[in-house]
């Protein structure tokens, strides 16, 4: 008889007759590592990779148009302010360049272009219209200077720019440029230091300053209001009716 037939199965042998790897280890079900129960939930502080939890976004959705668009109305308003400053500097330079003759003495002036001129009284009473009554005669000093017509100014145009306070009193149509004699009869009551200034109408210049300025500032304010309303409406839609803040409800 074979003596090995009576011996019990050795360590590391499968009862079914197969052999298991590791002859020194008992045949048993493998246990989980790091002391974790089999099939259990990983415990805090245990080994292995921590569980992954899907995050949920809590930030507010971006609202279009963005806040940077508020620069548009700001730039429009600043453009209006810049335009009015530039316009009045230009107008001041224009008034300073007028040809002038003193009152009551009169004198000779050079008008270097043909066409229409406006004659302004500069002196006390110009802004209020309380101008002493006197007559003005404008005649060519030498050929080829020529005057076509001279008429009373039909509307009220005044200015106060620097040291100049003027009111339009006459219109003058020059046929040929040149030198002209200006005489003021009956101007003995006119205060010393008064002048007659000859130049282009400032009415068009004032309109060219005021209208663009008003337009730019109006567009700036209107665009800011529209932008604010659009952003407020889209912000409330993005939040939803249940997430309105107390400030939104008030």
Explain this structure.
The protein has helices spanning 71-96, 203-239, 246-249, and strands at residues 99-102, 107-111, 115-122, 135-140, 146-152, 158-161, 164-176, 178-185, 195-199. By secondary structure, the protein is α+β, with helices and mostly antiparallel strands. It has a domain at 98-201. The strands form 2 sheets. Strands 1, 3, 5, 6, 7 and 9 form a 6-stranded antiparallel sheet that branches. A hairpin with a 2-residue loop joins strand 6 and strand 7. The N and C termini lie far apart (104 Å).
Radius of gyration: 49 Å
Sheet having the most strands? 6 strands, antiparallel
Structural class by secondary-structure content: alpha+beta
Distinct helical segment count = 3
Low-confidence stretches at least 5 residues in length (pLDDT < 50)? 1-28, 53-58, 242-250
N-to-C order of helices and strands: HEEEEEEEEEHH
User: Can you give the mean pLDDT?
Assistant: 78
Index terms:
3-stranded antiparallel β-sheet; 250 residues; elongated; 27% helix; 3 helices; 6-stranded antiparallel β-sheet; disordered C terminus; alpha+beta; disordered N terminus; 9 strands
Topology:
Blueprint: H1 71-96, E1 99-102, E2 107-111, E3 115-122, E4 135-140, E5 146-152, E6 158-161, E7 164-176, E8 178-185, E9 195-199, H2 203-239, H3 246-249
Antiparallel strand pairs: 1-9, 2-8, 3-7, 3-9, 4-8, 5-7, 6-7
Give a short overview.
The chain is of the alpha+beta class.
């Amino acid at each position: 008889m074979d003596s090995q037939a009576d011996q019990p199965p050795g360590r590391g042998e499968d009862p079914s007759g197969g052999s298991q790897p590791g002859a020194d280890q008992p045949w048993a079900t493998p246990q989980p590592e790091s002391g974790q129960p089999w099939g259990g939930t990983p415990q805090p502080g245990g080994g292995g990779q921590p569980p992954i939890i899907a995050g949920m976004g809590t930030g507010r959705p971006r609202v279009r148009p963005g806040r940077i668009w508020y620069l548009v109305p700001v730039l429009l308003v600043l453009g209006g302010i810049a335009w009015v400053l530039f316009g009045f500097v230009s107008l001041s330079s224009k008034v300073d360049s007028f040809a002038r003759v003193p009152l009551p003495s009169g004198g000779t002036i050079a008008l270097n272009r043909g066409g229409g001129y406006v004659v302004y009284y500069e002196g006390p009473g110009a802004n209020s219209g309380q101008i002493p009554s006197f007559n003005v005669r404008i005649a060519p000093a030498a050929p080829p200077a020529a005057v076509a017509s001279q008429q009373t100014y039909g509307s009220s145009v005044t200015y106060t720019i620097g040291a100049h306070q003027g009111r339009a009193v006459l219109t003058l149509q020059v046929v040929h440029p040149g030198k002209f004699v200006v005489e003021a009869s009956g101007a003995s009551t006119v205060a010393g230091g008064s002048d007659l200034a000859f130049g282009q109408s400032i009415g068009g210049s004032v309109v060219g300053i005021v209208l663009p300025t008003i337009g730019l500032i109006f567009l700036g304010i209107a665009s800011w209001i529209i932008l604010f309303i659009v952003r407020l409406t889209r912000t409330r839609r993005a939040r939803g009716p249940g997430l309105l803040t107390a400030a939104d409800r008030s």
